[in-house]
Amino acid sequence: xxxxxxxxxxxxxxxxxxxxxxxxxxxxxxxxxxxxxxxxxxxxxxxxxxxxxxxxxxxxxxxxxxxxxxxxxxxxxxxxxxxxxxxxxxxxxxxxxxxxxxxxxxxxxxxxxxxxxxxxxxxxxxxxxxxxxxxxxxxxxxxxxxxxxxxxxxxxxxxxxxxxxxxxxxxxxxxxxxxxxxxxxxxxxxxxxxxxxxxxxxxxxxxxxxxxxxxxxxxxxxxxxxxxxxxxxxxxxxxxxxxxxxxxxxxxxxxxxxxxxxxxxxxxxxxxxxxxxxxxxxxxxxxxxxxxxxxxxxxxxxxxxxxxxxxxxxxxxxxxxxxxxxxxxxxxxxxxxxxxxxxxxxxxxxxxxxxxxxxxxxxxxxxxxxxxxxxxxxxxxxxxxxxxxxxxxxxxxxxxxxxxxxxxxxxxxxxxxxxxxxxxxxxxxxxxxxxxxxxxxxxxxxxxxxxxxxxxxxxxxxxxxxxxxxxxxxxxxxxxxxxxxxxxxxxxxxxxxxxxxxxxxxxxxxxxxxxxxxxxxxxxxxxxxxxxxxxxxxxxxxxxxxxxxxxxxxxxxxxxxxxxxxxxxxxxxxxxxxxxxxxxxxxxxxxxxxxxxxxxxxxxxxxxxxxxxxxxxxxxxxxxxxxxxxxxxxxxxxxxxxxxxxxxxxxxxxxxxxxxxxxxxxxxxxxxxxxxxxxxxxxxxxxxxxxxxxxxxxxxxxxxxxxxxxxxxxxxxxxxxxxxxxxxxxxxxxxxxxxxxxxxxxxxxxxxxxxxxxxxxxxxxxxxxxxxxxxxxxxxxxxxxxxxxxxxxxxxxxxxxxxxxxxxxxx
Length: 811
What we know:
Layout: H1 6-60, H2 68-77, E1 82-86, E2 92-95, H3 113-120, E3 128-132, E4 136-148, E5 155-165, H4 167-215, H5 232-261, E6 265-270, E7 275-278, H6 280-286, H7 290-293, H8 304-320, E8 330-335, E9 341-353, E10 356-365, H9 367-381, H10 391-405, E11 411-418, H11 421-428, H12 432-447, E12 451-458, E13 461-467, H13 475-483, E14 489-491, E15 494-496, E16 500-505, H14 514-530, E17 539-541, H15 544-565, E18 569-578, E19 584-593, H16 604-614, H17 617-634, E20 644-649, H18 651-655, H19 657-670, E21 677-682, H20 683-688, H21 690-702, E22 706-712, E23 729-732, H22 734-737, H23 744-759, E24 763-767, H24 772-780, E25 785-787, H25 797-810
Parallel strand pairs: 16-17, 19-20, 20-21, 21-22, 22-23, 23-24, 24-25
Antiparallel strand pairs: 1-2, 1-5, 3-4, 4-5, 6-7, 6-10, 8-9, 9-10, 11-13, 11-16, 12-13, 14-15, 18-19, 18-25
């Protein structure tokens, strides 16, 4: 059923009122009106009958006898249709219809039978009225007996009979009622017409105009106004409506502003896939104006392939409720206005509104994010300079090759190590390192057949996994590798001579697992580096000797936790001597392993790397630090008041934010002045995260603790990094010190480091001073402090106390 219009609502009640009034008048009032007319006629008829009977009696009793004419006139005045004077014998002696005179009253059908009997029985009395329906009103009245009728000789006692037809009177009453009803209906219709006019003019037309303008609210910002003829209530309603519309528009603008400030694109579409709303970010993403997108299919933002599938996706979702995007999120390829595409993250939500089903889509350009992830992945898994696998990825890929070896795919591993990369970096600058390693890699890779993996394991170490049926390296290849770099490499006009050494690991596929292979790889590389000066060939082949070393490390890894728990690890101290005056500057705390039987256990060169690998090096450092502080606070070391205790810190400890606070708490608990403690960190540990480590070292120095850079020159750092390190002292790696007497190059490098350190207000410690000649050279080039077997071997607390006492006595 259609909704009624305002005009129908306004006019239907009056029309119904008029109809009900008319029906009420005719159904309720009409019978009463007719009864009232009938009663009025009876009363008038009774009065007229009585008057006529009286007048006729008077005319009949005239002294000259009855006056016929007067009787006639009385009969006329009675307005009766039939006037009869009936004697006692029942014979009409006068009738206004002469045909009835002298006849038999019983034969006059116009007189009701009741009156005929009453006349016959002389029972009319002073008047008897009867009616026959709504047609006839009749009555009889007794005439006095002393009257003479019509001049007769005898006195007559008779009756006056009047018969009056009232149907015409009732018809006239009906006509009058009808005319009155018509006049009233006309008045009501006129009033209704005026009501219709006023309703249309004052209500319907303004409301219609208001409705029409409300329909335009969505498309313009004009206020809603009514015509001047609008009544006050409607104008008030318009004002309220204007306020509501203005508030809605303001909220809509605020909401749109909020949407427009969103970085991600937000699109609302209907169930047919048409765009209902979009924010500014969508326009910026796709290059379409917002107005051009509204009302269009969302497929305009899709590639041709996705646009062709979109309708099927929507229909499938509407039928099954299963969606690929709705309520989820995924990456899609989107299309801009210029036809170019980009990678976008799309998530769609279902929105049930009274107007129907809608969908809200959130769109974000993730092209840069994906590229950044790819780049981060590359940086996390590949060397950023050479774009080779890094150590982590190399280890992961080796696991896959070992798994493939179970199907008979043998392989061998080649490690390449540029020994003099630091020398070349010092000579030509650190920027040359990448060029040298790249040139070395390209030459080696070009000589290999079946190379499956290539990696840069460390700053100056490369690794290759080469497929081979038996897992053996071709004999000719080792000879070719030995001579491959004798003529150096050309770096765009700059000729350099890298000292490249190789480790060949045959039958690498026979290792039990990845960990065993990696352990063998590291052991072989370390062994080759340590024995490089004793070998004539740059080629080193992994053999059983190295395998036994690996076995030994494995045993150490198993025994180390129990040894720590049993207290078999203890600190020893190696003196540091000021070269100018021979005084004791301090001691470096080292750690040794004593077996339960009192014999010396594995050396630190063996168990410290193992501890680093299994995560116990931090526990060892804390154990050694605590015992050293206990010795120092108890005075068992017999050190001078200004002597310094050097303690080593590992890479993991520098990365642990709790370590620093724990160290300072131990120092305070032992009652040792912070200035008497010196923390040694290796150059490699510093350079793994320069910014973080520099912050930790700065905190140490701010707490009064001294900072030393250990093994300087053995790792990644170049001299330029020294200016960024908050350190008090650097310790030159013993690799530069041991051949100081025989190598002019080492002497020049050490002298340069010493001068630079002094310029940076740092002291210098030379490690590995084995003889007096080396000590004299160090004094000559300005080194501050010496440490090595020439001055004293590592010793326990009691031996150190005696050493200090003897040294003081000799002075």
